Amino acid sequence: MDVSNVVANELGIRPGQVEAVVSLLADGCTIPFIARYRKEATGGLDDVMLRALAERLDYLERLEARKGEVRAAIEEQGALTAALARQIAEAATLQRVEDFYKPFKKSRVTRASKARDAGLSPLANELMAQGRAAVDPLREAARFAKPGTAYPDAAAVLQGACDIVAETVADNPDALDELRGFVQRTGQLTSRAATEEAARDFAAYVDFGESLARIPSHRVLAVNRGEKEGKLRVAVAVDGDEATRRLERRFVRGRSPWLEWLQRTIADSWKRLMAPSLEREARAAATERAQKDAIAVFAKNAEALLRQRPVKGARIIALDPGYRTGCKVAVIDEYGALLDHGTIYPTPPRNQVAEAKRALSRWADRYGANVIVIGNGTASRETEEVVAEFIAEHPRPVEYTIVNEAGASVYSASELASQEHPDLDVTTRGALSLGRRLQDPLAELVKIPPQSIGVGQYQHDLDQKELARTLAGVVERVVNQVGADLNTASASLLGYVAGITPTVARNIVAYREENGPFVSRAQLKKVPKLGPKAFQNCAGFLRIREGREPLDATGVHPESYAVAREVLKRGGVTPAEVAEGGVPDLRQRLGNLDTLAQQLGVGLPTLVDIVAELEKPGRDPRDDAPAPVFSRAVLSLDDLKPGMELTGTVRNVVDFGAFVDIGVKQDGLVHISKLANRFVKHPTEVVSVGDTVTVWVDSIDRDRGRIALSMVKGK
Predict the structure, then answer these.
(1) Is the residue at 303 inside a domain?
(2) Is the peptide bond before 349 cis (omega within 30 degrees of 0)?
(3) 8 A C-beta contact, residue 647 and residue 692
(4) How far apart are CA 320 and CA 424, in angstroms?
(5) Which pLDDT tens digit goes with each residue over 140-185?
(6) At 561, which CATH number?
(7) Please, how many CA atoms are within 13 Å of residue 88, restricted to the half-sphere of its CB?
(8) 137 and 277 share one domain
(9) How far is residue 685's CA from residue 613's CA, in Å, rounded to a whole number?
(10) Is 694 in contact with 712 (CB distance < 8 Å)?
(11) Following DSSP, what letter does each residue of 245-276 receive, concatenated?
(12) Average pLDDT, stretch 14-18?
């Protein structure tokens, strides 16, 4: 197999691009580094395409390795023919390779293997050959009968021969391939109640059936969960008669004395040997597709959450609400440093509203706090009411906003949180984390497992290894696109920078603590275990503000500093101007970049990136994201009326719609059919986590605490 051509054709790129990526990966280059600093070699492939390419290469490498193993195993049995070797070589999937290997596997004892051991293969071959001679199958079988064995008479012998034929049919690679496709195209996923609770918890999936080929991913996962909880009985319904007819067309050659026996055997082969495994495969394929889709949605949501705009310069009073244990408070400065902490009790059972307002006033005045952050968990809305009253009464301007606290408890109880804040209790660490989430969502969210950030669907039912791998790739992509401040980034954040392992990240922090702030990127070479290849991969993504080298504050890679300095020289710019905020008109000063690239002996994509960095050094791409919504009116379900227009924040996007925080205790759902005044294939076409949207109340179910919203007025 020409892997480069195969991958190139599948991904719609050139074989040369694939070969360049293979070479760069083999040389130890990371995907973020290749995407950002090797555009000439790859033809400008972005990191999403690079990851897809790397995954496909890995699959094809495993496929070729498995082909070799299967060929060797069959050859060892003396059964490898030229035709079979060619079929294995041409197989495009691991499943197809296993189909070819299936008849040669040394498996457990079966009815067919017992019949073979009893010497009934010649009769089975005669049955498969379907000779037209006027023979009596039972008389033929009687020749093989052996009294005192499992095959004492003609009927038992003939059944044994049929067992061999049934297994031969079931193991035929082409028959398997055809019937697998038939089941997956035409089968239905069905479910029915297994317990009385099913009617309550899985009402939509009682007496349920939907085509495997068309069923949406979230319904597959819902059915799987119902089965896992023991509340649903799930099966795949297939037209067995049609499946049997397809096998007959493949194996029956016409009328013969053996026809009735062969037809009966084919029906047995389908029902006993093929249907159970192919139905399991079909369910597994549907589940795999559903999980892949769910992980892709989770990844999009996580990326949008990580890309939320930082709130710079805010002094924050962060509140982690609670009832019995009170509301934990952390006061932090504009850099995220803890200034003060405490506990207030504005909610039941204590209802110390006046005392809570006095405490808020004291912290706001003493530390100049101008933003209050409230976690959206237990007691959030009651706390919000008190905060809104406080702001209305307070003489100085203060705003407030709600922050999604998903995963805050995971972080606050983690070993990392204990190391960062050993003197704080768990709940105060949680409040501190909530405040920092507003200041810099990316820097704070990387401290918790991506699976815990609360923006997926059925995340606990997914392949956890694949979910973790995909989400780690998302975090890595965002961190490297944003960049990290070498002198302030935590080890958690540094660990996602290209080329930096968790150990090296900790070593960077230790070096910083021992030697003071980094003054140049070159100092990284002194960090233990950070070798030349790691430096090459990571240096361009790490920023040093106010260091010795102005270019260290940009995304220009050290390997291109000579080119960057020549660019500045030709533009009549000093390095100091770059440090002071960049040169917005640099491109105009330089003239034709194609000509300049040739003169400087550098690729045009690299030159374009260098100029863009020098124009706006260290620009944060998150500045383009929607700003957080501040000072929303406090609402309850009783305040809502159909048709009411509200502004909200998208908290989660799932296959069937988007959940929007509109300022009441429960997020409202905008169904996919009401996201836009057009057909929407998937909600991610219209909204992302963190978006600020205008919605209209469609209906309110106060008994179940559900709110239906629309993003299309009047719909």
Answers:
(1) no
(2) yes
(3) yes
(4) 14
(5) 999 999 999 999 999 999 999 999 999 999 999 999 999 999 999 9
(6) 1.10.150.310
(7) 24
(8) yes
(9) 30
(10) no
(11) HHHHHHH--S--TTHHHHHHHHHHIIIIIIHH
(12) 94
CATH number, residue 247: 1.10.3500.10
* Number of Cβ within a 10 Å radius of residue 458: 19
188 and 247 share a domain? yes
SS3 content of the chain, % helix, strand, coil (to 5): 55, 10, 35
Residue type, 35: A
Q: Which residue range is the domain that position 132 belongs to? A: 111-297
Where does a domain end: 45, 79, 104?
Answer: 104
Report which of 506, 472, 481 is spatially closest to residue 491, judged by C-alpha positions: 506
Q: Above 80 in pLDDT, residue 334? A: yes
Question: 260: which 2 tokens?
Answer: 């009735």
Contact 269, 166 (CB under 8 A): yes
* CA dist., res. 637 & res. 666, Å (int): 8
The secondary element (H helix, E strand) that includes residue 332 is strand 327-332
- Could you tell me if 681 and 699 lie in one domain? yes
Of the pLDDT bands very low, low, confident and very high (cuts 50, 70, 90), residue 515 is very high
Domain count, the chain: 5
Q: Do 131 and 236 fall within a single domain?
A: yes
pLDDT digit string, tens, across residues 559-617: 999 999 999 999 998 877 887 778 889 999 999 999 999 999 999 999 999 999 999 88
382-412: b (≥16 Cβ within 10 Å) or e: bbbebbbebbeeeeeebebbbbbbbbbbbbb
Which residues, at least 6 apart from 337, have a Cβ–Cβ distance to it below 8 Å? none
Q: Are residues 136 and 259 in the same domain?
A: yes
User: Could you tell me if residue 280 is left (phi over 0), alpha (psi between -120 and 50 degrees) or otherwise beta?
Assistant: alpha
Q: How far apart are CA 453 and CA 464, in angstroms?
A: 14
For residues 615 and 643, state if they share a domain: no
Chain centre to alpha carbon of residue 349: 41
The token duo for 584 is: 């917005």
By residue count, the chain amounts to 715
